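Anyone up for a design puzzle?
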């Protein structure tokens, strides 16, 4: 069987690896839904892999279609128990079952997102969870999105339309309400294809703590990122 691969065109992964508060925020939000045998789709450099590990996780399998990124990912997780890496897409995982499947800033890179999630849900055990974190609001689609290969951004309606069969939508929320302001400014004023490290650190050090405080107060109704969690029903 041939392995399906492609070369990732984005160059933002190193810059965003410095967004430690953001990663800590979304992982704490998603932690109740991550357990058992976990599949991380499009794991990239592996900067999220350690974040998603918790006491309820038995194993993590990282799949990455870019061979160069997968090689770096193997170096990142080398020696860590219960973490494995393979090159390819979920089509090469037929026959394996997981308890949690994560798409962390990945689904927007996949042209046929509905088919992708329909295939992913079949890799879950009954009661398992399919988790998506993605950039929100198509109106904010910017040169940055285009430069790193985003096909789209999502809102509640468009992401709900991706709901796979054999599933029930358990939760859908926005995160990072203050960061939404920064994204709007980039769209209207800066029009950058890639944020600078200084901008990422400002967002991470100052805007994320503010969002973390305000998001619950706003009932997660506003934000620059969107989260969806589906449960496999049968």
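Challenge accepted. My sequence:
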């Amino acid at each position: 069987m041939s392995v399906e691969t492609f070369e990732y065109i984005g160059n933002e992964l190193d810059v965003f690896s410095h967004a430690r508060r953001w990663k800590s925020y979304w992982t704490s939000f998603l932690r109740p839904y991550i357990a058992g045998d976990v599949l991380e789709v499009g794991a990239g450099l592996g900067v999220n892999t350690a974040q998603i590990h918790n006491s309820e996780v038995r194993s993590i399998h990282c799949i990455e279609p870019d061979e160069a990124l997968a090689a770096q990912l193997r170096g990142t997780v080398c020696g860590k128990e219960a973490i494995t890496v393979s090159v390819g897409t979920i089509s090469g995982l037929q026959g394996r079952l997981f308890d949690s499947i994560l798409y962390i800033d990945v689904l927007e890179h996949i042209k046929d997102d509905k088919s992708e999630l329909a295939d992913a849900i079949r890799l879950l055990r009954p009661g398992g969870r399919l988790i998506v974190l993605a950039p929100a609001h198509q109106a904010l689609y910017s040169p940055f999105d285009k430069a790193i290969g985003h096909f789209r951004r999502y809102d509640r309606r468009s992401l709900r339309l991706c709901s796979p069969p054999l599933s029930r939508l358990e939760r859908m929320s926005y995160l990072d309400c203050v960061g939404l302001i920064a994204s709007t400014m980039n769209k209207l004023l800066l029009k950058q294809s890639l944020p600078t490290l200084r901008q990422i650190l400002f967002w991470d050090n100052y805007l994320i703590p503010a969002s973390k405080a305000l998001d619950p107060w706003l009932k997660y109704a506003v934000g620059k990122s969107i989260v969806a969690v589906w449960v496999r029903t049968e």
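A detail worth pointing out: The chain has a mean pLDDT of 89.
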